[in-house]
Amino acid sequence: MPQICIKPSLYRFFYALSVLASYVAMHPMAQAQTPETRTHLYDPASHPRDHTIDVQHVRAELGFRPEAGQVYGQVWQTFRSLRPSLDTLWIDGEGIQISAALLDGQAVPYTQQPGGISLQFPKPITWDKPYTLQLDYACTPSDAGNAKNNIHFIGWNDPLQLKRKQIWAHDIQGWMPVYTGANDKFTTDLTVRFRKPYFVRCNGTPGRVVAHADGTRSFRYRMTKPMSSYLIMLAIGEYDGVVRKARNGKPHYLYYYPEYANRVEPTYRYSTQMMDWLEQELNVPYPWDSYGQIPIIDYMYGAMETTTCTVYGDFYQVDSIAYNDRSYVQTNCHELVHQWFGDYVTHLTFGDIWLTESFATYYAKKFIQQLQGPEAYELERIQELRSTLAAAEKDAQPVGSSLGNPARWYPKGSLVLDMLRDVVGDEPFRRSITRYLQAHPYGMVTSHDLYRAFEAELGWNLDWFFDQWVHRGGEPHYQINYTTAAHETEINIKQIQPVTELSGLFKMPIWLQVHYTNGTYDSLQLWVEKAEHTVRIPKKDKQELSFVLFDPGARVIKKLSFDRTPTELMAQALHAPLLRDRYDALRALDTVALAEKRPALIAAYRQATHWLPKAEVVRQLARDTEPDAQALLASALQAPHIQLRTYAALYLDSLQPELRPLYEHLLTDSSYFARAKALETLCKNYPEDADAYLATTQNMQGWRGRNIRIKWLKIRIGLRPETAQPYLDELKAYCTSSYEFETRINALDALRQLNQLPDDVIPLLYQACLHWNARLAGAAGAVLKHFYAQADTAAQLQAYESGQNWTPEQDAMLKPHRPEGQAEKK
């Protein structure tokens, strides 16, 4: 994302009050007027960056020297001044060397400075006239060695010539001299020249490819609608592609590695259907001329919504088996949603990034609901709430803030949109979102623009909702208890979360349900907004109470303290109408004695149609040796649900003999994860037969970093160390930069599990710790920390470090993984 500048004088907290915001009575759930307090919290990125020109169009002709990690070319940017008179212009371009600068064909004096170029116009430029600035330049961004330069040269200098050769970028910072603030958009016309057989992809619709006599080709791509600079992409590599079309006729360019033709269908499954569904759901046509998707190696994220052509990590290029483990479908939809939310309408500042990420997460979840049904949607919501509450243990920052962090922008923001839809209703929500998109075509937006769309479309004052769920942080913590008598059930509700500057009391409509042993229930909706509420629900015909639900379906983000007896939890696990409440009851039974809950768990397993509650039962019964439990576990190991088989393999780490044949069958399961886990568990429990299990799996590579092969090597090395050298050599090779980052992560972790640190792996470990890919660096750091915790390997590491000269930046990266108090090498 673009860097945001803010004046130092604004680095402070400020609070302002606006009162008497009421929820208009025309809505069915409206209440009496309730004063609300909006707290404006400090956010260092809540203001757009100052800029002096409006860039309207960028044309570039680019070339590359990949072995040197160099970019060179010419860039022409057409712009208008935003000042009545402008004699100096700053152009972003850290590390970029300018060889010529011309304004409308005339040379312009310039100075190179840290971070960019300063141009001094001999005659001030003025309003109301377009200018064209030409910059001839070259840069070697890989010299900086970190991800902030956004362009990466992969594999060109691999000494073993094993690694896939690519150049890829998302964002132009560090390799093209153009203003990079988020508060400007422009069209593009990019021509890239590169040698055969490599293919080039940029934003926009592909144009004619021109072949040159020197064996190079020029690829041209043009954008007819404006976009933000951070959404510019580049991918150069060996690719093939197919073209499909959605109902709107827009072409989908779907790229893949030439040797992976069998992965095209499972990788891109439902791609055009997603666009069809989104156009119908949003009632706004796809806003660009075409769409593409292209895999890239060593990508540190899942994917990036670069306009008209998403780049994504090639680990998502799945075959028919890996599709069952973790498909690209939801990430695919997430990035497609961004073509509307993020690309078509773009957050003005980093403080409003939730408008990009929350919507993409939300609509991808809704597509999964459309595709797989309501239970799959509930599974997503369960995972989102877990992430939200885990983040709440660290701080209470808002969703609508640059301080919120990804746990707020993605899962919590998605849940906030669920709640907003619940509050206003399905069709009012759809109409308001359509209005929001239509009001800001190819523009920049803030949270207030979303609020205004709902207010303008519906006439409802939702200030209270945006205040507590977007502008402020934290979550409500409800404490529930109840008593029951012959004629009624009395339920007491308290909000017990701390009231701070970040978080206050919450106001939300919440359903209460009292369920009876005859299968009926009474319900009531209450606006919970005070510190304490007491509500009485009359009983029908003096029925016997079975269990009570507070917020059935868990529609409100919250912590919940609700003490219930094991009998009530077991009744809820079996009889609650919604999957979510049945699953939550099963989770709450975790601390109940096995003998007491076993019959209910087995009944819940047999009753469940979705794999999630079944997997929870398997988790709790995994070490139960009773015949009924063993029969259930056997059922799970051969279940038709791949996810259930995989979780059963994960939980059943210690095998009873009766389950062994079923576990052996998992060695050829339609899940790479299940195969790897089965191999490990069988060899652990039956080492005398490990050779047979290794023989069955010796030619399997697996997926996500050769997960099966590296597991195989680890087991074989540990089984017979005296003959392990060839296998250890193979494992060490996977630690080198000749392999993609997930293979390196798995290989280093295998050495950690073996507790072996060969001398020739130590430099590879440090290279990984200092890598620009944060996922590789973090995983390698954990391995480094492990070996530093042991005396013999700590001495090896200290001896190696004594001969190094780390930069201050490298020292800072290594410091968290060293023992406390270890001196840094200067």
Description of the structure:
With 826 residues, the protein is α+β, with helices and mostly antiparallel strands. The protein is 35% helix and 23% strand. Among the domains are: 54-238, Immunoglobulin-like (Sandwich); 239-340, Neutral Protease, domain 2 (Orthogonal Bundle), CATH 1.10.390; 345-464, Neutral Protease, domain 2, CATH 1.10.390.10; 740-817, no CATH class. It contains 26 helices and 31 strands. The strands form seven sheets. Strands 1, 2, 4, 5, 8, 11, 13, 14, 15 and 16 form a ten-stranded mixed sheet that branches. It starts with 52 loop residues before the first strand and ends in a 12-residue tail after the last helix. Mean pLDDT is 91; it is low at 1-38 and 143-147.
A few lines on this structure:
This protein is of the alpha+beta class.
- Secondary-structure class: alpha+beta
DSSP summary, beta strand count: 31
Distance between the termini: 33 Å
Major beta sheet, specifics?
10 strands, mixed
Shape: globular
Going by CATH, what is the homologous superfamily of the domain at 54-238?
tricorn interacting facor f3 domain
**Tell me, what is the CATH class of the domain at 54-238?**
Mainly Beta
Count of runs of 4 or more consecutive helical residues: 26
> Which second-level CATH architecture of the domain at 54-238 applies?
Sandwich
Mean pLDDT across residues? 91
Radius of gyration: 29 Å
